[in-house]
TrEMBL record:
GO terms for cellular component: cytosol. This is Glutamine--fructose-6-phosphate aminotransferase [isomerizing]. Keywords: Aminotransferase, Cytoplasm, Glutamine amidotransferase, Repeat, Transferase. Pfam families: SIS. One of its GO terms (molecular function) is glutamine-fructose-6-phosphate transaminase (isomerizing) activity. One of its GO terms (biological process) is fructose 6-phosphate metabolic process. Residues 41-181, 214-359 form the SIS domain. SUPFAM superfamilies: N-terminal nucleophile aminohydrolases (Ntn hydrolases) (SSF56235), SIS domain (SSF53697). Its EC number is 2.6.1.16.
Length: 369
């Protein structure tokens, strides 16, 4: 049932192009507009939403962080994102114009379930983004958008994450479409680009051999740091989480701009630092700033592992290892930049002799608070 792969995780990483395509299936009309009939929340209610709150745990929380960028940019509705386990304990402010999005692969995560119950008690509408048909979280929500990634068996989430991202983009774009924001043209072009995501993920998967070799060479590294800006920040957090849970290594993700406020003190000779570089097109200021961050850490001895778009030549002089990803609109980059980090963690853990499908101390679904 592992389909010829040694581990479910490898199989699930490889399934990502299809999983992403399945999440999109039937949701983009021939006219290029989105149809999310299953949403069951009337457009009129969506037009009146004045705040979005995303709650989730672990990897799904990282998808939520990315959703915030997309929702605020395309809809101009303020969006908060919070780990579900913290949410209800701070007495969050919500009412019937609040849309709460609960993201969960399993649909059984107790922290997320308790957060959404709290939200509904306050009168908020809850939309679940979930991979498991008929599970508790969608059953207790006002509406559900299924990710259709197929069963995810490995404890470390991979294809569920990419499809959660796609579902979040669809919700953000749909809200933008329904509310008719000034980003109309950008929204239609992003919808088109999303359709190309499965091919781009496939392309990245085809270039992973050097990433595997690099991961094997780092099996004895004491720690790995991950840096990113904008949507690259949650990607960095996700890369670090994967390495923690699979390789049992000290791994940390930072917003690259925070480096100088403390973490740069961690940099020492030979420390591997993975940097997720935003596109040089679009918000190019972000790109230039991260190139300076790479220069700074390299000058202090870091071994730089740079994930950058094809054609981005500015990073070349400072990259000890360069991992290329296809060019995408800034907000969609996590769909391609996360893939090398999954492969990296899986290979590094395997090189250390760990059982990647069943990491120690972890369960696939956490049904206690
Ligand atoms: O089933 P859920 O998406 O609600 O699970 C949330 C987290 O427990 C989960 O993403 C966890 O962080 C994964 N093991 C990460 O790989």
């Amino acid at each position: 049932e592992k389909g010829g792969y040694d581990y479910f995780m490898l199989k699930e990483i490889a399934e990502q192009p299809k999983a992403v395509a399945d999440t999109l299936l039937g949701r983009i009309g021939t006219d290029g507009r989105l149809t999310l009939d299953e949403l069951r929340i009337p457009d009129q209610v969506l037009r009146e939403v004045d705040k979005v709150v995303v709650v989730a745990c672990g990897t799904a929380f990282h998808a939520g962080m990315i959703a915030k960028y997309a929702i605020e940019h395309w809809t101009r509705i303020p969006c908060e994102v919070e780990v579900a386990s913290e949410f209800r304990y701070r007495d969050p402010i919500m009412d019937d114009r609040t849309l709460v999005i609960a993201i969960s692969q399993s649909g059984e995560t107790m922290d997320t379930l308790m957060a959404l119950r709290h939200a509904r008690e306050q009168g908020a509408k809850v939309l679940a983004i979930c991979n498991t048909n008929g599970s508790t979280i969608p059953r207790e929500s006002d509406a559900v958008l299924y990710t259709h990634a197929g069963p995810e068996v490995a404890v470390a989430s991979t294809k569920a994450f990419l499809t959660q991202l796609v579902a979040c983009y669809l919700v953000a774009l749909y809200l933008g479409q329904v509310r008719g924001t000034k980003w109309g043209d950008e929204i239609s072009s992003v919808i088109r680009e999303l359709g190309d995501a499965p091919r781009q993920v496939e392309q990245v998967l085809g270039t992973m051999e050097p990433v595997r070799a690099l991961a094997r060479s780092l099996a004895d590294a004491p720690a790995v740091l991950f840096l990113g800006r904008h949507v690259g920040h949650p990607v960095a957090l996700e890369g670090a989480l994967k390495l923690k849970e699979l390789a049992y290594m000290h791994a940390e993700g930072f917003a690259a701009g925070e480096l100088k406020h403390g973490p740069i003190a961690l940099i020492e000779e030979g420390l591997p630092v993975v940097v997720v570089v935003p596109s040089p097109r679009g918000r190019s200021i972000l790109h230039d700033k991260i190139v300076s961050n790479i220069q700074e850490i390299r000058a202090r001895g870091a071994r730089t592992i740079v994930i950058a778009e094809e054609g981005d030549e500015a990073v070349v002089p400072y990259a000890d290892h360069l991992i290329r990803i296809p060019a995408t609109p800034t907000l969609l980059q996590p769909l391609v930049s996360t893939v090398p980090l999954q492969v990296f963690a899986c290979e590094l853990a395997t090189a250390k002799g760990h059982e990647v499908d069943q990491p120690r101390n972890l369960a696939k679904s956490v049904t206690v608070e």
